[in-house]
Write a structure and sequence with these properties.
8 helices
Length: about 210
């Protein structure tokens, strides 16, 4: 089985023989087989951690709204996928019209980042830094939609920057719902940060579209 895996990787690498890699660090192997260098691997780790923080912040916002904080029961968000949590956040704006702009902004960023994160984390590494998620199986289309992304330090830096901005935007919404208006103001990204994150999210969305049709 292991021999078959090595053979498959060698075939994917267009017949190149990667001798001497058996005892090499896994980071070196990822670079050799899939074109994901060590710097890019570190960028992936940063983005994954930041998106996890976004997920936690999003859950806190929803539980603050439903007033489930400190209640001794399994939270209603426990079985919700991230996509469902963003839908729930969008619905929150209907009950809190004063948060409409902030909520719509957060959801728009979140939906792009969610697709990028799922593609990077659950996608299969191909060659030259490309990852693909939910590839067809012998021509059969899978239940979940196909996505792909060409990953490098630049696109991952953009994703991390957007995730950081989204984290603070969600924190501001949560603080507002808790009545901590000073904290909400302090965490709210300023207009320049919001515009920068919006532009970066557009670049990420375009990269996803381009990779999907490549």
């Amino acid at each position: 089985m292991c021999g078959g895996l090595i053979q498959t990787c060698t075939m994917k690498s267009k017949g190149k023989l990667f001798t001497g890699l058996a005892n090499a660090p896994v980071q070196t192997k990822l670079h050799a087989f899939f074109g994901i260098n060590e710097e890019t691997q570190r960028h992936i780790g940063t983005f994954v951690v930041l998106f996890s923080m976004v997920e936690q912040q999003l859950e806190f916002v929803l539980l603050t709204k439903s007033r489930e904080i400190a209640v001794e029961q399994i939270p209603t968000t426990d079985r919700m996928a991230v996509s469902d949590r963003f839908k729930a956040l969008r619905a929150l704006a209907e009950e809190e019209p004063s948060l409409l702009g902030c909520v719509e902004y957060a959801v728009n960023l979140g939906e792009v980042l969610m697709t990028a994160r799922h593609t990077v984390v659950h996608g299969a590494p191909m060659e030259h830094g490309r990852v693909e998620k939910n590839r067809s199986w012998f021509g059969e289309v899978r239940k979940r939609p196909f996505s792909a992304l060409q990953i490098d330090g630049a696109i991952l830096d953009s994703e991390s920057m957007v995730a950081d901005t989204l984290f603070r935007q969600l924190g501001s919404i949560g603080a507002w719902l808790s009545g901590n208006f000073d904290v909400a103001t302090a965490m709210e990204p300023d207009e320049t940060e919001r515009e920068t994150a919006t532009a970066a999210a557009a670049v990420i969305a375009e990269a996803l579209r381009n990779a999907r049709t490549a």
